[in-house]
Amino acid sequence: MRSADVRTSTQRLAVVRVVMLACLVGLAARATHLAVFDPKGAARGAAQTERTLTLAAVRGQIVDRRGQALAVSVDAPSVFAIPDQIQNLERTARSLSPLLKLAPQALRSRLRPGARFRFVERWLDEARAERILALKLPGIGVIREPRRRYPNASLAAQALGFTNIDGRGVRGIELQEDAWLRGTPRRLPVERDGSGHFLLTSGSGGGTAGGDVKLALDATLQAAAERELQAAVEATGARGGLLLSMDPRSGEILALAESPASDPNRFRELGDSAFKSAAFLDATEPGSVMKAFLMAAALDAEAVMSDSIFDCESGKYRIPRTQKDIEDANPYGELDMASVLRVSSNICAVKIAEVLGARAHFETLRRFGFGRKTGSGFPAESAGILNPWQQWGPVERATIAYGQGISVTAVQVAAAASALANGGELLEPRLVLGHRIHGGRWHPTHRRVVRRVIGREQARQVLRMLESVVGPEGTGRRAAIPGIRVAGKTGTAQKWDAEEGRYSNRRFRSWFVGIAPVDAPRLVVVSSLDEPKRPHHTGGGITASLFAEVARSQLASLGVRARPDERAQHVVAHKAPSTPAARPLTPRAAPATSVAGLQGDPAPANCPSARGLLVDSLGSRVLVPNLKTLCAREVIQITRKAGLRVEVTGRGQVIDQKPPAGLPVDSGTSIWVKLGPSPSSGKTQS
Amino acid sequence: MPGSAQSVNTPAPGPRFWASTPEGSALLTSVTLLIALGVLMSYSTTAVQALGESIPRLAQRHTAGVVLAALTLVAAARVPLQRWRRLALPLWFVGVALLGATLLVGHSANGAQRWLTIPGLPMALQPAEFARLASVLAVAALLARSMETSGAGKREVMRCALLAAAPVALLLLQPDFGSAAVLVAVLALLCFTAGVGLRVMALPAGLALAGAVAYVSLRPYALARVRGFLDPWPNAQTEGFQLVQSFVAFGRGGLLGVGLGDGRQKLHYLPEAHTDFILAMIAEEIGLVGVLLVLGCFAVFARVSLRVAARSREPFPLLLVTGMMALVLVPALLNAAVVMGLVPTTGLALPFLSHGSNSLICSALAVGILLRASSADEQRPARRLVSRGRTRPRTA
């Protein structure tokens, strides 16, 4: 039976029920408000979650004309800090210091608060990145960033330029073709979780992968040219030098060797001036090389005939209306046009320039492309210096004839010489042979004729005259190649001595420009050494030998056969059987790495199929990349792109490889690579 | 539930299973729904913390807790209500002892010492939950006795306060302000239900309120929570962060939710998404519909429990049922109010839904008692209850 108390309680329970249900209704109302009527929550949710992630496209490759990779992009680990998450700055700095080889003081400044994200060190090797991750330091992480790798180290470094740490081309082709190589970044709409991680979302976000660029350079020829150039630089004690090979029919630059060489993989230590291409960027005085173009101008203007005779005044001549005397190296009397070039007489050159007149001289040199950019598109290319003829004083009118008072780049010289070689048409020098989008087909660049410079016949006449330069009595006789007719011109430019205010008698720039074979030119080579030491300072010295060495092997690989009888005819024509034959510059340099037995060897003449064989055997060959100091991951990426197989032993980074870098091998060849602890990063756990 | 309704009306009772009354069925259905939703949400919210595992360990633990809770519920439903009356005081001592032990040897998380590990037991105990239940039992027993004799008056309130003082003090020392507040609120509700005069209750209630204000204003973290509560949006990166993230969950969810498992707020945005703020995750993933379902289940739970209580002819079952209902509903209301920014954050679990076995098992114990109270056995005339301790249901 219910007591009174229980009845009271039952009444009160009704109150409780009402209160409880009222609370629940209130909560329901509040929930409805928050979920349906209050836009703040949803808006903030979108704001804090939705992000656009910009992903740089993978940068395209740069390959040589045979498709061998010259620049590739690989992933490299970079260490970053999220300063807010670092719990103990001091301890973090101390733990990272030995691994990153950075002073704790320097590290502290990178770890200090004040930024949401900061790179601590970029592009580490894998082993160190793993060890840093293993430390599990709060606020320290590793991400993979694309890193530009140049598998052939310093090969064609100045032509390639390099890409900086943020993936932008800084010099050379990397800069010239930056937009194409870089592609367009993907802008992915992504969501971000509360701790800042990105969540995968669907959608491609557009963007295009970076395209590839094919260079006209041939890595095999390039490697050989660089070796020969380096040997010449060492033999002459020169400060540096360059060698540029061009196909005169197409303007393609087949090789561009420059010394000193720098490894673009190390651009961060070397600074970007180490990758300045002297061939494109340095304008210097060409010396007597200009006489070839003077002769072309004079013949084209019909100021002289090929059989005109000039008096060389026995080696001493005062420029009219001046106090300036000029001299020849040797005293000569009357000379025909070919002989003026053959002995490189300054006096006769000046007289020809007088006959030609400054205006015609200037205009023809302009037509040859001097004093303006070649149109190659190479970044920061120099236009050289060629003042308008109206500004030429009596001295310039004379000295420009033999290459003083005018500055040119090696590329301009090569292009102008190509015009002589191809019958008078100036072509745009071409370093880039084609483009392709990622995974697409190659779209070739096209040969572009800038203009006709001189008549076809005049060009042939100059070429024949220049052939005598390489003859036994010519200044460029050391440039002769047995079995191949070669035309050329030497140049020995005195450098301007700023201290003494006159041209130096101790510092020179030697030049040789050669064209071969004369009857159907396939190759123009400009070689030049900067301050070679006496007695090698002349263009007819080791500079000419360098041409012969390089041109011989390059012609061989182009399939130009040496004919022993050519040389014989040549010798007979000049009645000088005691010609010193061009000899190899440095015996050790010649066959070790190039296609042994084919280089400069007349043997191909005996072998009817040599030409086809040669091209095929080179065509499927690739240069072994330099894998030293790379990690396994990079090795695999690089060798795959080069079409090679790889066997890897050990852990760490590459400390040895077989075959060595730079050796041409068949594609598909297996490269043996030994990995070990890097000398700098200490022991790696095994 | 017409079938179960029939079974009550039959003169010869059918199998006297505790769910055989309409009240029992309703209770069991609402609680089962809540627990099932809790398992679902536990999986959804903990999977984020265990990427790569097929079933997250935390969700496994929660499911294990559900099994234990079910066993507890069944066991509790077989215990005659009168037995709790005898056990009340001993259990109170056990609860207080456990709280004391927690302060001495327990371990802390998030700045509060709330956990007790007992060797051999796979889970850590949270004695607060059990102590709350034991205290409610004790007070219900006390008030029932006074109602049976003289009626609840000032003396009873004093005694209640004494019984409450020890656990409340120990809870505040942990500190667990939320549990203490829940306990005080439930006990006050019991006193109210027991018929204590409102004027008698005014003084202790005022004292408790003053104590709460003093407690909060003396503690910087508690003050910060109040600041975050009063003005969450301008402080969205600091004190108001959790609350704003909870609002975001509601806003993102809208009416129908973003879909189960598809919530973003659990991805390290909303702190305690799987425990105290599980309701916000329901709001995001199932939407307002889900929240209303949860509130509706609790409404059914409260409504049915109160009906069972009101039907009681004896003071003790009445108070016991009211107490057990309040033990579940008060934290549920508080938790929902916290999640929706109506009350400062207190750190209370949402019964049946929040991750954590202690809350689940204690709530199940309460539900077991409620089921027992709703069952035919306890609905017999009072004289039948003279034979106390008869647990076996009679066979038909």
Features:
heterodimer; A: 686 residues; 7-stranded mixed sheet; 5-stranded antiparallel sheet; disordered C terminus; B: mainly alpha; 65% helix; disordered N terminus
Task: Briefly characterize the structure.
The complex is a heterodimer of chains A (686) and B (396). Chain A is α+β, with helices and mostly antiparallel strands.
CA-CA gap between termini of chain A: 85 Å
Largest interface: A-B, 43 and 56 residues
By helix and strand content of chain A, what is the structural category? alpha+beta
> What's the pLDDT, averaged over the residues of chain B?
86
Helix content of chain A: 25-40%
Separate helix tally of chain B: 14
The percent range for strand residues of chain A is 15-25%
Share of residues in helices of chain B: 55-70%
- Any low-confidence stretches of chain A, pLDDT <50, length ≥5? 567-619, 681-686
Biggest sheet architecture of chain A = 7 strands, mixed
Sheet with the most strands: spatial strand order of chain B: 1-2
Estimated structural class of chain B: mainly alpha
Name the helix and strand elements of chain B from N-terminus to C-terminus, one letter apiece.
HHHHEEHHHHHHHHHH
Strand content of chain B: under 5%
